[in-house]
Structure formats: C-alpha cells, structure tokens
Amino acid sequence: MSGPVNSTDVDMVAARASSPSGVSDMLESRTAIVGSLPVRRALPQRARRTVGAWCFFDHGGPLEAATGVGGIGPHPHIGLQTVTWMIAGELVHRDSLGTEQTIRPGQLNLMTAGAGIVHAEEHTSAGRIELVQLWIAQPSATREGPGEFEHHAELPELDLGGGTATVLVGSLANVVSLARRDTDHVGVELVVRSQLVVPADRAYEHVVVPMDAPIEVDGRLVEPGRLMYVGPGREELPVRALEPARVILLGGVPFEEPILMWWNYVARTHEEITAAHEDWTQRRDRFKIPPSQLAPIDVAPPLWAPHA
Ligand code: MN
Predict the structure, then answer these.
(1) For residue 128, how far is its CA from the centre of ligand 1 (angstroms)?
(2) Superfamily assignment of 155-253 in CATH?
C-alpha cells in the first residue's frame, strides 16, 4: 500500500521523547483512502512517530470489493520494510525483484526496500478485503542495502489461555517468527476471547490496537481505531475482551535514529528523499517497474525540492 501524501505529512522528523517507565497514553487513528481502500492510520502520529522501529500502521477495510482489478499500482519505497498481514481476501504482490506472490488470510508478506524497490498489490477477485499494512524503519546498518522479499505461509502461534497469539515478526515467550528482523522488535496478532496476559519484554515500548471490538488493556477501555501506547519497563500486559476481538500488538526497543518520512520513503535527510523521488519520477534503474495491470503512481515532488 502507498503511504502518506498529505502536506501535513511532509515534515516528519521523529522527535523522540523518552517515555518514563510503563507510562501509557491513548491515541486515535485517522482515516484515509489508499487506492480504493478506506484505511484507519494508527501510525505515524504527531505525538508518536515510532513504536520501536514500527513507523506506519494502516488497517485497511473491511471493504466489499467489486469485480475487476483494484488495489495499488507500482510505487517505490526506500529505507523500510513493509509487513502485509491479510485478514480477509487475497492480494497479488509483484515487485522489482521479479517476485509474484499471492497472499491469503493468515499469511505474511515482508518486503525489504533497502536502497530502492517497487511493488504493486492487486486484488483480482470480488469480495471482502481486509488487511493490516505496517512499515518498519530500517536501521543504518541495512537501509542502503539490497531489497528482499519474503512470504510466510504459516506463522507460529501461542495459546495464552483466554486467546491466541500469532507471532508475525520477532518472538513472544520464546515462540519465534522466521521473518527477517533488522532491529529488535515484535509484531503479534492476538485473538482475545476473554482475558489473557501477554508476556512483554522490559526493553520494549508497545502499542495495542483493537481491530474489530473494544478491549481493556490495564483495565482501560480501548475502542477499535484507538491505540494504547505503553512505555518500556513492562513484563506483562493484561488484555480483556467482552466479545472476541482481533488485536494488533507492536513493540520494540525505542528506535533512536531520527527518521524523515515522506510519501513512501523513510530516510534521514531531505536530500536523500529528493534524490529517490527524482529517480522514481525519471524511472531510473533503482526503481524497475514490475508488470501490473495498474498504472504506476506518481506524486508531485516534495515542497522542499528545488524547482528546475
Ligand atoms: Mn507500498
């Protein structure tokens, strides 16, 4: 999926305020449209740019898709990993590495952009579609490296008594996902039936986001579309649901590198983004366009870019 384009998103230098141990706050997603899909965007927020290295969180749909090809046409990324987790429906992923991969519910796509990659995500059949798409900022050690794509058809699960955890990325109570990880972080889907306690890493900050039903975290009500941030220092997070709830839990060691996000790029400087966007606009080598029935996506250059 394609990222922020609004002018309000232009200047996104992460201002990382260190959070006192265990401190929590409640934030609200905003709505946006990506391609033809309505999304609730939980990250980034003015008050909370990153959680660990997680820097973008869209909950797309649910949408009853009409017949015909929809989705999002070829577009570029740098400096991030995209994590796509299907809840309902199918997408076909194609990228500049030559990958073509169908993703179905319960499966994970993890694409590493490095210095540059292009992908398209098409839905080719009618019916319900719902997904989560997340971005992870790459650290300096890998962000200028090669692109990579992984598909995980099965992911490890953990029975937590009052519900089940599926480990998308990272590990939870020694249950480990095989998905690539460049920083110390975790991504989990919880299906909460009654109440459970999620084991947590004291070094991690977390965010808890219910998808479809309200939950309580630490006894505080969290409605769908809201996100509850919990600072580092916790060994467990109690979660309770009055009806079965699908919940995304993200965590990680606070990401200390100040990042700059614009459109589909995560970088460190304006110059890097200007150069990447010019390469995309000029269709240069680092951004090869994969075959797609959808048109490539172009947007005007960033406002800070010098005019020719
Ligand atoms: Mn994308």
Answers:
(1) 20
(2) Jelly Rolls (2.60.120.10)
